[in-house]
Amino acid sequence: MKINLALLKGDGIGPEIVDCSIEVLNKVAGKYGHEITYTALLAGGCAIDAVGEPLPRETVERCLASDSVLLGAVGGPKWDTLPGHLRPERALLGIRKALGLYANIRPAKLYTALKDRCPLRSSDGFDIVIVRELTGGIYFGESGRREGEGGTEAYDTECYSTFEIERIGRVAFETALKRGHKVTSIDKANVLESSRLWRETMHKLAAEYKNVEYSDMLVDNAAMQLIKNPSQFDVIVTSNIFGDILSDEASQLTGSIGLLPSASLGDGTRGMYEPIHGSAPDIAGKGIANPIATILSVAMMLRYSFSLSEEADCIERAVEQTLNNGYFTGDIGGNMTSREITEKILELI
Residues 129-146: pLDDT tens digits? Predict the structure, then answer.
């Protein structure tokens, strides 16, 4: 198979972890006879520095012409004082919108080798997939500032349509059919009108999936339940902002946010794949960032965009065996560099 990938290495540790993942992808491609070409593009703070905007038109066009997109991370304190529309994070929102990537798939799994790294006093393990709506909600609603009686007011609007809710709901139910046949929908229906529509729409959708166990949960309770008993969850589906927060919470239960990959998908096969962590400017250039989340994102890309399940399994087995062999980066209690742990994974492919 010939694959054309767009690379958005981004800022901070982004270039380092993307380079590590490319090595792994090239090794797997060679093993299974695939040909991969890469197109490096600007997005985030590096794009602001180079051309004055976080998401250049050329980047969008080249991503649309690619088979899939691999992203590192964007942002950093260097650009924190810029106005909202020029912040590096606008590149993420913009590329997701431009590519029609409305479903963010974020797995959170506790590896056996890292059970003692889990902050919970006891855990029987867990394997959760969080399905986060990605192109609607408060991040894309009307926002602004106005003058009120108490001075300047700022507002952000949460808005969802039945179409958007049903679309992300189907992704969750179809995902559950391939796993544990259980969906938990997270909302705030006791307070928010948008959540009441979310719940009504999910209930109608659940009626179509008789073989999937369905339940609702308020977001504040969900935050507690993830700490109390994460193994009760199989597939979680929720809105953009709730998914953003809960998936970061779930990541810490695995031992480190440096382990969690993600896939952003739309209606076609093209997706954008990235670790869920940020650009970590405090450790950028030190060679100590954990590349596993990005490497596992590559595995997700092979599985979801190209239906190369055997190749994806090969990467995931190599990562798990590396951890089982006791090779850890600093974020999970070890002292290996990004390069050293990548080499261990490459040896096992």
Answer: 999 999 999 998 999 999
